[in-house]
Protein 1
Amino acid sequence: MRNIYIINKTYFSGLNKMHKNKIHIRFYEELNDFIPKVNKKKRFLHQFIDRTSVKDLIESLGVPHTEVDLILVNSKSVDFNYIINDGDDISVYPVFESLDISDAQHLRPKPLRKPKFVADVQLGRLTKYLRMIGFDVLYKNNFNDDEIVWISLNDKRAILTKDRGILKRNDVTHGYWLRSTKVKEQAIEVLKRFDLKNQIKEFSRCMECNQLLQNVSKEKIINELPTKVAYLHNEFYRCPSCKKLFWKGTHYHNMLSFIQSVKNFEF
Ligand SMILES: [Zn+2]
């Protein structure tokens, strides 16, 4: 009995001596979407034992690095490799247009010049909506995480995902975690995050194949059209891949109201 007591005593005194780093950290704006309620929108105390980079610390608290544009430690900007010191005071910002941080070190890679996306398997409906308003989105309902990351890196596509884990992978540079589960809200999130409102081009891309549609004259396809459609419409598009014909009829009014609501949305 006595021996066991001594071992336990030594063990506990060892734990007590283990140095804990204490830091304060605050996440700003939409980064709070990843933070438990108790710590949202405020500076909070965080304690840890191991030596850690600021990137690993931020991700251990739930925020993927792709969401972060700026980190200030004790009021100075640092990069993701910064090693945390005891007592550090850390502020973490997403893309934040109005903040005057011209001297600061921005962490997000430059925006991809041509917005292109690869979507995870949960985002089939969003994919169709984004294609409908002209955006290039690769999607397959059986893509796995490795394929998505590979496509993102090789084809310079931003990852759209409902799984924040994929955005925490070190090799991922561009990505966005969808907050909403509603497709129209998701479309607005993407337009807002990637600043795409002025790049909407409705009816320019096939919703099924992601191919750009081609104008086709009525004369060439008149034999393929139902009589009523031929009578009512003069403007037609064809997908070069699936050969499907599109005209501003069937679903046009539903789509138009969605497109209008997106365009009218205050960004
Ligand atoms: Zn098609």
Protein 2
Amino acid sequence: MDSEAARTRLTFYARAVQQTRALAASQTKFLLEESQLPRRWYNIRSDMPRAPPRVLHPGTGKPVGPDDLAPLFPMELIGQEVSEEAEIAIPEEVLEIYRLWRPTPLYRASRLEAAIGTRSRIFYKYEGVSPPGSHKPNTAVAQAFYNKQEGRTRLSTETGAGQWGSALAFACKLIGLECKVYMVRVSYEQKPFRRSLIEAWAAEVVSSPSEDTQSGRAIREEHPDSPGSLGIAISEAVEDAAGRDDTAYSLGSVLNHVLLHQTVIGQEALAQMELADAFPDVVIGCVGGGSNFAGLAFPFMREKIAGREIDVLACEPAACPTLTRGLFAYDFGDTSKLTPLVAMHTLGHDFVPAPIHAGGLRYHGVAPLISQLVRDGLIRAEAYLQNDVFASAVLFAGSEGILPAPEAAHAIHGTLQVAKAADQAGEERTILFNLSGHGHFDMAAYDNYFAGKLEDVALDEDEMSRALHAIEGLPSPA
Ligand SMILES: Cc1ncc(COP(=O)(O)O)c(C=O)c1O
């Protein structure tokens, strides 16, 4: 090729790249084809600089083995819980159900950017398009599938916000399993239509603490007005499953395999950011047990661990500040001490968070994988008050249109803080956050906010010290 032809070709190429970039800059939604759905889950354990401490049997203090977990979980999930393989294939039957709503859209939040006058670019991955309205079915479908495959006919679970309970009810209905949901009392009362949705998918739902289990009855006797908590509801669901051969327990967050299943979110987002000709400087998510945050962040952390600079921010409520103020310690996953001991950031297993409206973030612990990454300085965390979070939610709804779940609104609030700090420093950031669910069943919370009735609760120092007494005497992580 002579040099003139080469120059012409290069000019054409440069123009095409510029056009693609200009198009991407003015585009709102970045969509993938169904055929681009990830076919593997990403397992961050294979890349972590330091492995999390082993899970311990509370009786013996020794690491738990598959036989200890078999009464509660199918073998395939137990295998995934301890796997160090970098990638795990998603079964075709699970992909088939994922296709009902996946791949989910990635949006450029141009209207939000304009509303706050930021120089930064803001993107969000929207998981609220699933039938139950959040990221939760990404793991619910997988868990129901493996349980059915291994012969279980019934699942028991807890739910905080009602999002997880409805996701598991949905998955069980489509896959053909019975389902019982222990719904944290305060959410049971705040969200009657989440209950109806759970029942529409043919699951049974009771208010927790309930009369149906020994753990529930004991807590009701001691604290008749208990608003319930995820820790209490987990005790009830574990007890239910441990007492019946036909039933397995299913957890909506915290465990390694749950976080693994959520990584379809971040893998899609990586491809979609490429379509947008962008890469995030900051990745943000809200954290209850940690599954939606991990789902978005872990595939980006793979790049971070490999040397790319990314600020990864976890957002939590000031009423339940597990990562920002909790201890990294061995603790039980539930209130009645029925689960194995896991090393994680915790506020103590009998801590009952104030009844704030982000019910899905009212958990005393956080996923061990996230806790270890925070401990190693790869993830940072911030805690926010609920009136500030709702103000950001309303600002978002007024610019982008979507009314967020109160949990997801923590990630929006975190995003606005990062954009503001960047503007003040005269910097420009590319921010990506996870909009983990919509808030259509959370209207009572919005009503309270509009009526000025939301209390700002930051966890009291005395209550925190009291609750942390519960872990005295338990083993310490190395
Ligand atoms: C919409 C939404 N986002 C986030 C969460 C928090 O859970 P996780 O930290 O496991 O994503 C919940 C929990 O119920 C939820 O419903």
Protein 3
Amino acid sequence: MFRKWRERRVLASTAIPDALWNDALAALPFVTRYSRDELARLRDLVVLFLHGKSIVGAQAHEVTPLQRVIIAVQACVLVLELDLEWYDGWESVIVYPGEFLPEWEWEDEAGVVHKAEGPMAGESMLGGPVVLSWPDVEASADWQGSGMNLVIHEFAHKIDMRDGDANGCPPLPPDMSAREWKLAFDAAYDDFAARVDEEEDTAIDPYAAEHPAEFFAVVSEVFFVEPALLQAQYPKVYAQLARFYRQDPAARDA
Ligand SMILES: [Zn+2]
């Protein structure tokens, strides 16, 4: 209850100017799929998201108000029919002026220390920030050219990490079956990985074959931006995502 009260206070005192909001939507063609009513709810979510998270530049990158809204809109599209609580437990989004070298290292069972293979366009850390390269966020606006959406990708990882390490299966609501999810995703992942192995030219980003967690993040991008493609190639995965995100974007394009 306190949370809802606090949210109402934030919404009563903070607004995104119309010009800024319209500029952000103009930069994100896939968002035009939503109705006026949905866009109004999305705008409220964006206000609350920007109130709750800090979006900061790294390496002298200056994050403009438009960049903040463009990032927040895409982050909030995923939770439009869920809840912002999916993004609880961490504080910030860090924006680099280009691809970046991750600073983390990890030690394997043999005690060998590995560094990440950089550079990276984006990263989501468990309990930590989302890191984005601004030029890659910008490139995502043109799906036909880039075939990717970096912000949706990284925030899908955040949703996946709601119950611990990213494994390709977020915590499911009580009306969904983990078994059905696994059946749909395992079959699609195996099929996709085989197609990538055979060097088939896939319309879906071949990076999805890296790991089931990457598959979930990549198919979430396709679900929101080019839903008919996902529905045609992996209808059972599309159906699971539609139930999970409580949205059916392909139906609007039909
Ligand atoms: Zn990823």
Protein 4
Amino acid sequence: MVKNYKEKEKEIFQSEEVKTENKKLNLIYSLTIIAVMIAMIAYSSVIFAGKHEVEDIVKGRGVNNTGRLSDYFPDLENTPGDTDVYYMEGKEPGGTLLVMGGVHPNEPAGMLAAVLFIENVIVVRGRAIVIPQSNASAFTHQDPGQGAPNYFSIQTEWGERQFRYGSRISNPIHQYPDPDAYQHYPSGQIVSGSEVRNLNRVFPGRPDGMLTEKVAFGITSLVRDEEVDFVIDCHEARPMNPIVNCFIAPEKAMYIAATASMTLGFDENIPIRIEPSPPNLRGLSHREFSDHTDAIAIIMETPNPAMDNLRGPTDVELIIEGKDVFYQKAAEQGGLIYVPYPEDIGMPLDRRVGRHTSGMIHLISAYDELNPDQAIQISNLPKYSEIIENGLGDYLLKP
Ligand SMILES: [Zn+2]
């Protein structure tokens, strides 16, 4: 009896030892797996958090001063929505121009047109304010599933200038969660929830809204506080979208858009359409500035082949050279894309930026014709033919 009891006790004791050993091993395995997961999450968080190398924008000789958007709305200070503002004063008094780029950071020609303005222009009369990266948060990530490169580079005589290729909407780690549906303030228009991160759907913005609405409120405050007369907002669109290669103008800006469209055609042989801004499509910069401030505002659109669903691989070459065999096929079919696609040229970035710079030159002239007492005169902005001849890199300064 005694022996049996002792043996049994030994068995039980041994199995407890084994159990303890197994528990230890399980704990080691679990901790290892958790450590690997934490490392993977940390690594992908760094990428997801948009640890992007921020590009330099060089103050050209025409820049007198720089500031931040938070100067107009202090709530933006130390947030991912704050962004740089450049001030360029003319010697003679006149009107105030605001140039906006990077409202949509996946539309590189718009941002680059604003950069070329900052790095080249001398304001002769009046003054210019430039916001090259209007939605700073959207420059820190990319649209999921689109396969776009993080950066693209432009060759210059002294080396490469690298720029970020961003997203259409603000980074979800800066503004989360999206509502199921977004109700625009103050119109009450309802659109899909993610549009609350689209800067060009949330103007005029609101001070107690989500981050992108606060950015919009900051820019609208700048337009009011600086008594901006004329706003040019530089964008790109999908080549299969009929609203491309055009000026989009609300009622107040239609004469200026029409005049500039004619002079661009006559003087520079650049055909550009005019699209009336629908009064019921709310939240867009030109519509809301025109309705909520004293400024006149126009959006310009060029075609970006890296944005449309027809494209093949989305690489740096597509962004810069703008050539894709599928657009070629679409152009041959006729009626599928709304821009010319010459096989040997494609839709390159230099021509798209050139359309913006020449567009600005003609829009400002048309504005001056209507407002001789508050005229804005600029010099040294390279026009379309100059950019094609000399290359974009010729107009980018060395940081
Ligand atoms: Zn856009």
